[in-house]
Amino acid sequence: MSAGEASGPDELKALRKENKRMERRVRQLERLVRTSEMMARQSKSVMERSLDGLRERTTDLEAAKEAAEAGLAAKDRFLATMSHEIRTPMNGVIGCIDLLTLSDLEQEDRSLVMTLKDSAETMMTLLNDILDFAKLQEDQTVIESRRLDVAHLVASVASSEKARCSSKGIDVLFAVDPAVPQALLGDEHRLRQVLSNLMGNAVKFTEHGSITLSVAVTDGGQQLRFEVRDTGIGMKPEVLGSIFAAFTQADETTARRFGGTGLGLAISSALVRAMGGQIEVSSEVGVGSCFYFSIPLALPAPDSREEESKVPAKQSLAEIISAQDVAGLRVLLVDDNPVNRKVGAKLIERLGCTVGLATGGAEGAQRALEEDWDAVLMDCSMPDVDGFQATERIRRSNSPRSRVHIVALTALSMEGDRERCLAAGMNDYVQKPLRVAELQEALARASSAERDAA
After folding, report:
1. What angle do CA 335, 339, 345 make, to 5 degrees?
2. Which of 202, 291, 405, 418 shows the smallest number of beta carbons within 10 Å?
């Protein structure tokens, strides 16, 4: 047998062996593929179930989000409605009180009227506190940055409290650090609210002595420090840690004796935080209290030309009327509420103006375009044609009277209502209840705008 003949069977045997090995390998791969396919199907099933669960969870979350948003919207509508429904009758109450204040009354009668006025203003303060607290809870409060005169603001707030303190024999003082710049950037409305709350709190709990409001530059010129110091009843150390919590007062005896909701300090604390600061207090029973806070000092741009906001110090109504004479102006009052029309007309006439009345938006728009007026006082919430629609009709008209000065006179008081009125084409915004001083200032602005346009 030759060598070639001997190798043939060996090669064949080797090939068969290799073939079997390959077959085993193929079967292993097939089993691996089947296992992989099964695992893939299982994974796909698990993923599909997970996706179904995720979709269901997403749907539930979206439904919960929509329900929460609907709840917040309902709450906002309720607060807006409550505010409107309370402010509307209070407009008549405070308007009549102002008219009585301007009347020739005996001293005893005048004292009763002033007591009535204080009670009405206290009710409005409580309403505003509740609304502010609700907005702060929802983080809806916007802090503006506009030009302001801090020294003037401090003097104005201190002056506003002097009338309340004079009957108690309390001295009201204020001090402004000469280093405080005349022009700064900040939210004058919110800063005034905080300082007024702290001053009002000091007046409430001080029976004798003095109350001092001061402002100074600190932290190397980077911060403004405000301080309200009184010689009142003071507080125990154990209550200082919770004094800024909502609905909190020193004790039940204090609440019964001095009244209030316990919201003022909570609101002040939240507003100061929103302005970048932290309000604190030091106090000693029988000696007095000192509330203080610091906020960042911001300067306006060197080329800023924005007019400084000037809020006059508190004056008597007679002084206010003589200070800004608007006598002779022709004023159209548009309001569907007969009490508001009656009281509003009397207030306007008391300022020496000629008044016209319209009982709704359609009539108001028509009279505004057909007659010459120096100002239109436009209620916003009226049936059929509201103040926004009436303003739109006036502004879209081709009449030369379409640019008449329109003042929103409204019980709307939620965040953004003022901006909404201005965006609708109104020139100014006065919130109900209407007070003679605010009406006087609004009409003076209307007269000034008319002169500037002439």
Report:
1. 65
2. 418
Tens of pLDDT, residues 180-235: 998 889 888 889 889 988 998 898 889 889 999 999 999 888 899 999 999 999 98
**What does the alpha-carbon distance between residue 374 and residue 450 come to, in Å, rounded to a whole number?**
7
Q: Is the dihedral of CA 320, 321, 322, 323 positive or negative?
A: positive
250-to-206, 234, 284, 306, 416 alpha-carbon distances in Å? 14, 10, 13, 43, 35
Q: Is residue 18 part of a domain?
A: no
At 206, give phi and psi (nearest 5°).
-115, 125
CB atoms within 10 A of CB 37: 10
- Residue 420 sits in which domain range? 317-453
Residue 272's Cβ-count burial label (10 Å; 0-12, 13-18, 19+) is: buried
Q: Is residue 13 part of a domain?
A: no
The pTM of the full predicted model, rounded to 2 decimals, is 0.61
Are 216 and 150 in the same domain? yes
User: Among residues 296, 331, 355, which one ends one of the domains?
Assistant: 296
* Cα angle 426-428-429, degrees, rounded to a multiple of 5: 105
* Dihedral, CA of residue 199, residue 200, residue 204 and residue 208, to nearest 10: 40
Backbone angles phi and psi of 94, in degrees to 5: -70, -35
Query: Cα–Cα–Cα angle for 201, 207, 211, nearest 5°?
Result: 55
Structure tokens at 311: 């809020």
159 within a domain of the structure (yes/no): yes
Give the Cα separation of 353 and 437 in Å (integer). 15
- Return the CATH number at 239: 3.30.565.10
Q: Between 232 and 453, whose confidence is greater?
A: 232
346 and 394 in a common domain: yes
Classify the C-alpha dihedral 154-159-164-165 as positive or negative. Answer: positive
Q: Contact 300/147 with Cβ under 8 angstroms? A: yes
Q: Is residue 434 part of a domain?
A: yes
pLDDT by residue (tens digit) across 46-97?
A: 888 888 888 888 888 888 888 887 877 777 777 777 777 888 888 888 888 8
